[in-house]
Protein 1
Amino acid sequence: MFDLRGPCENHATLRKNGSKALFGTVPNWDCAGYLTSRLFRRWQSSDIREYRIKAFMPSHSEKKERDILKLLPSPKQPPKLTARRIGIHTSTAGGVENAAERAYRLGCNTFQIFSSSPRQWKPYDLARSQCDEMSRLRERYGLKPLVVHANYLVNLAGGNPDFHAKSIAAFRGEVERALALCADFLVLHPGSFRGSSREEGLQRVALAIEQAVDGLDPAAGKLRVLIENTAGSEFSLGGNFEQVAELLYLLSDFVLAGACIDTCHTHVAGYDIVSKAGFAETLDELERTVGLKNVYVWHCNDAKAARGSKLDRHQHIGKGSIGLATFRRLLNDARLAHAAFIAETPIDEPLDDLMNVNALKALVAGAKALPSGKRKPRVRTL
Ligand SMILES: [Zn+2]
Ligand SMILES: [Zn+2]
């Protein structure tokens, strides 16, 4: 028996399973300190490394369960809702339709998903049965709108011909899947124009979307393509409202278009949404350029970085450099009542997703406030 003194569950399992289990794995570096040097030398020199059995020792950070389906039972009563459509980006693990159940358990009445892996080109086919189940659950739970966020790899503004063609094909897949899922909105980051000018980049995005939807009819499916404003890093398009507005104008001939405005991106791009006067001015500017009625989705994310930093790091609602007052103003502005408010906040700890949904809901006028001093409601949806 090896000398395994670690306090973690991995080691308890190791001890239980003895050497057999250990030989079937590659030691995890988190735990390597607990292995005796004799064992470590054996691992280095032997053929143990050839084994590639399913990760035997998950890292410490992976061990915490974060899936709301496993953390919360289905509520007996429908969740209390507010006068706004509030939701969160929701995992599709186990099948795209599971996202609807997750959104319901989180107390949402709208939600956002990826319809395929967000950082892979691999196309993903949805089964008819999955789409039907998604529609059934949305109907049952009153989840509307359904927002699909496009893959992060898609760059319709780029100048590299191979990459551009790949992006157009991938975006066409996004449109097809969004239509199959009866989604209302497909959110797209306008991309990076590195290698050309900003103006050429905007033109190229519009042309690429026209090509991507050729032969499809997203308008018949009532699918609207939403251009999201970005953090405004050097070559990214959409770092200000004028660029988003220009793109909407270019797109309006061949798709239903609109905007998705992200609070974190707006803040780090340099707009003042924190002071009362700044918030009012920023919304006035949004009205003059994009038009508030054309903003169908607000991504509600607090920011880890400072205003104007161009650093896109999302933070929990009320815990970052934006703060609760901005989200309260946003959620209670009558000019925005038609929009969906969707968080894309991190899940650092189990139930952080529920905490952020509840934080937004508590800010809507008339909503019952959460108990003060309680960071995280454990099993209660508002
Ligand atoms: Zn966003
Ligand atoms: Zn972001």
Protein 2
Amino acid sequence: MSGGEGIEVRGLVREFKGGVRAVDGIDLSVAPGEIYGFLGPNGAGKSTTVLVLTTLLPPTAGTARVAGFDVVQHGPEVRKAIGASLQESALDPFLTGREHMRLQCALHGLPKFERDARGSELLARVGLTEAGDRKVNTYSGGMKRRLDLALALVHGPRLLFLDEPTTGLDPQSRVALWDEVRRLADDGVTIFLTTQYLEEADVLAHRVGIIDRGKLVAEGTPAELKAGIGRPSVEAVPQDPGDRERLIRVLHRFGEDAAAASGAVAVRLPTGVGELADIVRALDAEHVRVADLRLHAPTLDDVFLAKTGRSLEGAAQGEQGEDGEDGGNGGEHGESGAVGGGGGGEQEPARASMQQV
Ligand SMILES: Nc1ncnc2c1ncn2[C@@H]1O[C@H](COP(=O)(O)OP(=O)(O)OP(=O)(O)O)[C@@H](O)[C@H]1O
Ligand SMILES: [Mg+2]
């Protein structure tokens, strides 16, 4: 059981009018000081879970304790303990960053003499010192996300909810936000972070829960989840197609056949990635020249695929197509396009970082 600053969720259900079970029986625990990554495609139920855990939506069934308090019975205590940066942030375009900070400090009851200093400290923390006196309608999407994070930190919460904090951010802003999240966790803040980015969950979260269609389909550390999927494979393309047979013979010394792209040969490695150097040496010794050699380590997408039969990247479209959703989620189609379409280059880093030559 987690202590006062963690999260305990049992059998959580949230059904919307019309029978959509956005959250369909979720159990999870987040330990104090942990970064928990809640990974899932569009429409999986991430924001609904966050809204219930932050007391903004009542659950239909089940229980949730946040910072030691029941979200239904002790809403005010939960709200006092947590900070939240929600997907739909409520910034006023006509106020400056600094004015937002001042207002938030006042709402949280900070004494007047502390407000300016606290606002400046947090604006500096998220890299908005210079932009602090500009109106929010001049901010980029990333700057708004960072201001939203600063606002969530005003009262020094021990538990922080971040709903897709990096969606739409450029790679540099994304990494800066990851650094900030890590710093907060180092300071002991418990962080519940939703994301649809594989790489984000992989590099940032201590533990990941994968959610699909309202259900938790896998949970563990990124390493555990990937290890559960199997061994990495190595794939090679001969420079000279005539060398294919010799390439197969060399690779077969290292593992069994695995699925490969056309023209390529692949084997699954029985132990791990350490064998790559041996493979390169063996190919060299046999004078087999390769045009391409890559290692495919299991990714969180492979985990998602294994659990749901679909790829995480393609899952959202299928879901939305089925539900025939529009309106409310219309704005999010654009976002999902940006993700899948390489706006953040998200599929690439996740895959590319696993490829070595
Ligand atoms: N207020 C609502 N009324 C009816 N259905 C809703 C409502 N809010 C969400 N839903 C539905 O619940 C499901 C889960 O939505 P949710 O917003 O929790 O997904 P998500 O994982 O946060 O997705 P995204 O990555 O797009 O933000 C979707 O099918 C959505 O259409
Ligand atoms: Mg959402």
